Amino acid sequence: MITIVLTNRNRSLSLISKCFASLRGQNNQNFKCIVVDYGSNPQNQKLLQSEINKHANFELILCSTQKQLWCKSRAINLALKQCDTTYFFVGDIDMIYHPHFIEELHILKDKHKVVYFKVGFLSENESNTDKDFEDYQIAFPSNEEATGMTLYKTEILKSINGYDEFYHGWGAEDTDVHVRLENANIEVAYFDREILMLHQWHPKAYRGKDSFEPFHFKLESINHKYLEFTRKTKKVVANTNFEWGHYNASDYSVLEAPQQEFLITNELADVKGFIHNMFLDHAHQVISVKIKEHSEYNSLKQTAKKLIHKKTKEFLPLEEVNDLLLEAIIADKRNAAYSYRYSVQKNEITLVIKL
C-alpha cells in the first residue's frame, strides 16, 4: 500500500472536491490518503472534515496553526511520522489525478526508490470545467525543475529526517529533499513519459494591507540561499536540532492565558534585548509581547541630532522588526505554539508564544 499526503491551507472546497473525486475514481484503490490541514480558518476546517468523512480511506490531521507562518515541510512530516506503509507519495490538493495514477505508482515503486512527476497546468477557464481527465486542455507542462510531486520509499525519507522544517512560506523545500537524497547517492528519477496530474488554477494569495496574517517579506530569497548551502555542504540529514514532525495540540490552548506580558518598541536594542532574553531564558512559559513604534521614531529631535552628528537611538522600521522576529522563531522556536499578528495599518506586532 502507498500513503498519499496532501497539505492544505484555505484552498477552495470546489478545488478540493475535484482532487478527492479523482482519487475516488482510481482503478487501483490500494492506497490511503492523509490530508494535513495546516491552519485553515475554522469554518474551512469544518467543511473539509465533512468532505473527508465521505471517503473511507482518507484521514484528516487538523492543526491550530492559523496565526503561524505556513510550513509545508512540517505539514508533510506530520503525516510521514505516522506513515506505516512502505511507500509515501507527496501530492498536492490542487491536483486532478489520472484514473490510472495509483496503478502507475505501484509499477514505478518496484523500479525506483524515489521518482517525481511531470505535471500539466490548467488555465482558469479550463479548471472551472468538469471533464474526463484526457479531455482537459493543458496550458503548459512543468519541467524537471518542478520537484513537488514525488514518490519515496518511506524508510529512505525517514532516514534523512523528512522534509527540512527550516523552510517556511513558499519555495525550495521540495528541491531540498531531492538534493539531500542525491547527496546520499540515492537516485532520483524523473517520470515524463506522460502527464498523470493536472494542476488546477487558483488565485495566488497576497497579503493585503488590512491583513493580520504573519508574513516575512524576504523569506523566499532566504529559502533559496539556504538551499544553496545544502548543496555546497553536501548535507543529507535535516532537522538535527529539532524534533521533526512535531505538533502538540494542547500547547495551543494555553496561548489564551499568557503568564507574562511585555510592551516594547522598534528601537533596535529593545527588539534584540527581547529576542535574546525571552527566547533563551523563559522556557516553558507563555509570554505575550506587543511591539509599537517608539515615540521618538522619525522625530524632529532625532533628526536634528543626526544632522549635528550627536548620538541617537537606533530604530528599525516595523517591517524589519517583523522579519527579525519571525527569523528568530524559525531559527530557534519553530516547534513552539505561537500566535502572531502584524497590522500594517496600526503599526503593531503582537506575539503570544509558549516557549
Automatic annotation (TrEMBL):
<feature type="domain" description="Glycosyltransferase 2-like">
    <location>
        <begin position="3"/>
        <end position="119"/>
    </location>
</feature>
<dbReference type="Pfam" id="PF02709">
    <property type="entry name" value="Glyco_transf_7C"/>
</dbReference>
<dbReference type="InterPro" id="IPR027791">
    <property type="entry name" value="Galactosyl_T_C"/>
</dbReference>
<dbReference type="GO" id="GO:0016757">
    <property type="term" value="F:glycosyltransferase activity"/>
</dbReference>
<feature type="domain" description="Galactosyltransferase C-terminal">
    <location>
        <begin position="133"/>
        <end position="193"/>
    </location>
</feature>
<keyword id="KW-0328">Glycosyltransferase</keyword>
<protein>
    <submittedName>
        <fullName>Glycosyltransferase family 2 protein</fullName>
        <ecNumber>2.4.-.-</ecNumber>
    </submittedName>
</protein>
<keyword id="KW-0808">Transferase</keyword>
<dbReference type="Pfam" id="PF00535">
    <property type="entry name" value="Glycos_transf_2"/>
</dbReference>
<dbReference type="InterPro" id="IPR029044">
    <property type="entry name" value="Nucleotide-diphossugar_trans"/>
</dbReference>
<dbReference type="InterPro" id="IPR001173">
    <property type="entry name" value="Glyco_trans_2-like"/>
</dbReference>
